[in-house]
Fold:
Amino acid sequence: MNADVLVIGGGLHGLSAALQSARRGASVILVERHFLGRHASGATAAGVRTLGRHAAELPLSLEAAGDWHKMGDLVGDDCGFVACGQLQVAEDEVAFSAVKARVERLQAKGLSHERIVRSDELRTLVPDLAPHCLGGSWAVGDGSADPHRTIRAFRDAAVAAGVHIKEECKVTALTWRAQVWRAETSQGSIEAKVIVNAGGAWAAEVAALAGDPLDHAIRTSMMVVTERTAARIGPVVSSFGRKLSFKQTAQGTLLIGGGSQGRLAADRQSATVDVLALASSVRSAVRLFPKVGGMRIVRAWAGMEAMTADHLPVIGFSRRVEGLVHAFGFSGHGFQLVPSVGRVLADLVCEGHTKHDLAAFDINRVAAERAAA
Amino acid sequence: MTYDVLIVGAGPAGMSAAVQLSRLGLAVVVVDEQPAPGGQIWRGVERNKSGPLSQALGEDYRKGLSLVETFRASPAEYMPETQVWHIEEGWSVFLTSGGRARRVCARVLLFATGAQERPVPFPGWTLPGVMTVGAAQILLKSGGMLPQGRVWIAGAGPLPLLYATQALDLRGQLSGYLDTSGRPGLAALQKLPGAWRDLAGLAKGAGWLRALRRKIEFVRDVKDLRAEGEGRLQHIEWSTQGRRRRVEADVLLVHQGVVPRIHETLALGCAHDWRADQGYFAPRLDRWGETSRPGLFVAGDAGGIGGWSAAMVSGEIVALAIAARLGKGGDVEELRRQARLDDRLAKALALRPLLDALYPPPRERLADETIVCRCEDVTAGTIRAATRTSVPDPNAVKAATRCGMGPCQGRQCGYTVQALLAEVHGVPAGSVAFFNIRPPLKPITLSEIASLEDMETAG
Structure:
């Protein structure tokens, strides 16, 4: 089979790129070696967060924030997005000074998506919060979504736009000849003019097949979910300087994450939970919300995602081979960026350029030496 | 502290392995969820030593007492009322008891975790008043409790026959027995010659059947069972020989055989094989009970259903292998021969092929409206719809429907989901995997896990 675009990787970034490209008239095939959303996209806490974003990511993040508030227009479903706000609390004076300094810098640039809240307003926003919290930063337009519903909505929209999705389809070889990529897969060969590498934790393997070797680390962020409880916590809560993010889902379960790392298997193909590291996140959560200590954990897991040294993604054309666009290395905070990055990738794939400044996301940051032939 | 061997489960397999290993001078700890040793088969055997309950529970039950007493007298450390909720490479075993979490380490692990009843959903199975025969037997062994009112038993296998016999001996009320197993086929008859090695066992089962048919209504060839009621069980309905019948009922006890407990070995990534005749996965074991992961052993029903006497022998076999691994063994092949372990195992398993052929797992098509996942209220229809647009992978169904995401971690719905996926995609059930098993193996509170960090930093 053949198409204009072959997207490798059926996570949310791959689906979003496929959807946007198909809507601009490209014929698109997406291949996924397991099932859609098997790794990071299905393992995420699904935070929709502009709060605390790196300056280089802010333009894409603020654009995506607009999309999340009218997700129905984009994919025909709100993806379970609730604009419950995100709150970053400061548990001591040092933390509070750092949070205040960041928000002042944003305001000096005319950005108002975060604002400082003091102790009394903190209690109004989250009555269950422990008394020692001094204040924090509040992003009222932020929130969280349902990751599985988001995957289904992007899949359905992509299929409706004409994207051909092949699950359990593993790419085994890539060759570029006469301006066309030929991909050998477990379900036959596919030809395409452009390839999008949305391979997540396996992005380096895809890049190596395409002759563009690169190095990235793998993040194995852990999450914990409890049994259901009555609605008690509205916003998504994090704590400055701690590996903690805490929210109550629409189902009533409590979801605790924030970046505590699991153990990566030596072959980099799987990750398992490290209970002692997880205990530290859970302890931070119980310190912030003493009342939830008696809740039972029903499941913990470690997701896998590519991570770069500066924690910024790689988005853009390969500098070594033609017809290859990379989108990976979101380093644990790519979920919110899905709508805007999909648009940027469609710009690159369909037009060859984008109005967004991608300098901070350059592939050269992770390029590796080509192995001697 | 670090033990030589940590055994999970104090039933026939776990106790017999513990006795052997501690005799050989190894530091053994046995962790068990129950308040007293015995496992499910000999639950409460120390308190039910005599009296009418002991008489009714039968000779096989009373046989457990001597092993329990030997185990109590052995130097093996015993941790009752303790749950294993996570295991990490090396082996670090995370436990909770009395609301506190802690970690113990061991050089070798032995899972003697036994079996669980095969959950078989049917319309109305989640109504209060419907419970499993296994649960009813726990109540019987724990305090002599019997269900009251109009009590029906429905299902197949030796356990409901045994339970019905025990209940009637104790003057329990039973309205009737609905046998769902169908007529024994040629396959079962072909297994008869092998079963003669356990003549006593064969005679015992036949005796239960005869007595039951004399004392209560015994309905054969039961299909399309349904439980109904407003808020709790009021009626049951079934078909037999083309006729539909409906009766009033207060309690319905159901049972469709037992399957190995495999969450622990699945969570640790051990290889498992599909047993098509009995419809379950069992960990792949070598002839010494070692899994595909070195240092991880399984004995008893957790490695494949064999019953209590086979479990005791397999505990002895595994103990030899573990002792050898830890440098205390000697010539294990010779010891295995001397103790006639393989011969004893074969005799203990003589009846098994006949039982497996008589009681194959039920294969009735599930109605779309039947609840499959009782934690998250997911129906068969929802699962069928979700997998039509995806691949035959239960983890994809879990993500799409929340089926298997509740506190039971798929213990109740795993095999049903597997069968539904095989049906929709037209593939053999054994080609569909089980859910990925995530920690914790048992629910643990946030405070318990948080306290773990305190303890580790203090220590």
About this structure: The domain at 119-256 of chain B is CATH 3.50.50.60 (FAD/NAD(P)-binding domain).
